[in-house]
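Lecture 7, part 2: worked example. A protein chain together with tryptophanyl-5'AMP.
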Amino acid sequence: MKKRIFSGVQPTGNLHLGNYLGAIKNFVELNNDNNNDCIFCVVDLHAITVKQDPKELRDNIRETVATFIACGINPEKSIIFNQSSVSAHSEAAWLLSCVARMGWLNRMTQFKEKAGKDKEKVSVGLYSYPILMAADILLYEATHVPVGEDQKQHLELCRDIAQKFNNDYFAGDFFKVPEPLIQKEFSRIMSLKDGTKKMSKSELSDLSRINLTDDENLIINKIKKAKTDSLPIPSNSKELEMRPEAKNLLGIYSSLTNLSIDESVKEFSGKNFSQFKEKLSQVLVEKINPISDKIKKLNNDKEYLDRILLNGQKKANEFATNKLKKMQEIIGFL
Ligand code: TYM
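Predicted complex, written out as structure tokens:
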């Protein structure tokens, strides 16, 4: 049985090292395996849960496609499309919002973090966003969903929604209950300025993240300025537990070099951070530079990017519309 892989990335600009190491790197590996059918979605409907500039949004949708390809996703071997081009996503999200419970959504930590103290002023979309995410996944009968650690709770909600729909409508296993694919290690890359906070597009300071479009000088400078502590690198990884910045930087190094954290700690044990940072910058530049060059090149070829999206839209639309129709029949619409 082939696995059906589905995942999405918001086109909100500045795709960063967290997106790459937590998710996109995994997309590429899954896409290279012929036992998988892969669908990668640019989730523009999710992006507008916070205000977007229309021109920037259009550019960012294309740049997200460019980033997928620059990172190694093969558009011939996968479906790449933007969410808003398949209207079944919005329709299914409404149907599922009548299945999902308020109590479930009230538990979502990402909403609490994003809304902060301003809960009354954020959009309703930001609150119901995990239901749209469930619609994305369930419409394609995805069996596996590769994501970073921050999306784990949303995937659990998706599983609950699928099961409740199946039960409420005596629909057997109409919705497949998807499995999350979250890497055991390095599935949560932290800010370069604060090792207790997730690396994120929405963080104000650009120094907090490595963007996939950063050039060599920027990368070297950001790593130089990355927060550390005053102790040398320890002799074993247990000692990193109370040192979030050191743990994060060594985690980034390990993920990029495919080493375990213990192997990385051993390599740099007793050395100071300036020595380690030099090596980390070098590894980062080697990895990010070719990606960043390719993104810039592809960004100039709008026609190619639009062609990929249009191809993807045709295939995704057929699939999603079929599933939506069946949902409507099960619910009892004429
Ligand atoms: P988004 O756009 O915030 O992030 C895209 C992917 O990158 C991962 N990620 C990280 N991983 C590790 N460390 C970090 N600091 C980090 N920051 C981001 C995310 O976990 C994600 O895998 N709601 C989703 C998009 C979505 C989706 C879906 C995903 C919409 N529909 C259906 C899977 C299936 C989001 O906002 O991801």
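The chain has 13 helices and five strands. The pocket of tryptophanyl-5'AMP is lined by residues 6-10, 18-19, 22-23, 43, 46, 133, 136-137, 145, 147-148, 150-151, 187-189, 198-199 (CB under 6 Å). Keep this in mind for problem set question 3.
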